[in-house]
Design brief:
The protein is α+β, with helices and mostly antiparallel strands and 171 residues long. It has one helix and nine strands.
Length: 171
């Protein structure tokens, strides 16, 4: 074989070797499962509408938005903007569906269950999926409403929690 053909063959083999090694290294990182724990706080405010339902029983719908600030990353983010809609029943408790929006545009979908919105109430959350780098996220978290302000005449409320904590897994 001529010298040029040998050099071309060696260049081709070196290129293939680099491509294979890069695929193995970066392919493993991209498909690696991520797990972790997190702590943080959540400040939320919103509006509620009540329904005259039964004696000594308050029922209503609510929508709240607010900032979730984590000390530890979930996915690649520590800050999320949360939006929730739910149903509150003073006897049966509350249920809400939330979306946490990352600053990069990825979403986390959440189911919340708890007692009515007031100080000292513990709420349980469950991650049920996401988009982008949060696709397939699963996990649970909990928090307690630390301070709550409710203006019943205006239907406006604000809440703050500082003990938000949980764990997650991203496949």
């Amino acid at each position: 074989m001529s010298r040029i053909r040998i050099e071309l063959l060696l260049l081709f083999l070196a290129t293939m070797f680099i491509i294979i090694v890069a695929t193995l290294i970066f392919g493993q990182k991209a498909s690696a499962e991520q797990t972790g724990t997190f702590k943080g706080s959540w400040i939320a405010s919103g509006q509620r509408q009540t329904l005259d339902f039964a004696a000594d029983r308050q029922v209503g719908t609510f929508k709240l938005t607010g900032h979730v600030n984590l000390q530890d990353e979930v996915g690649e983010e520590e800050d999320y903007w949360a939006e929730c809609m739910g149903l509150s029943d003073s006897v049966e408790g509350s249920a809400a569906r939330c979306v946490w929006h990352s600053m990069k545009g990825d979403n986390v979908y959440i189911v919340l269950e708890g007692r009515p919105f007031k100080e000292g109430v513990k709420v349980i959350g469950k991650f049920i999926g996401g988009t982008g780098c949060l696709n397939g996220i699963e996990g649970t978290f909990a928090f307690t409403w630390f301070s709550v302000f409710i203006n019943k005449n205006e239907g406006i409320f604000t809440g703050h929690t500082k003990d938000l904590a949980g764990s997650y897994r991203i496949p």
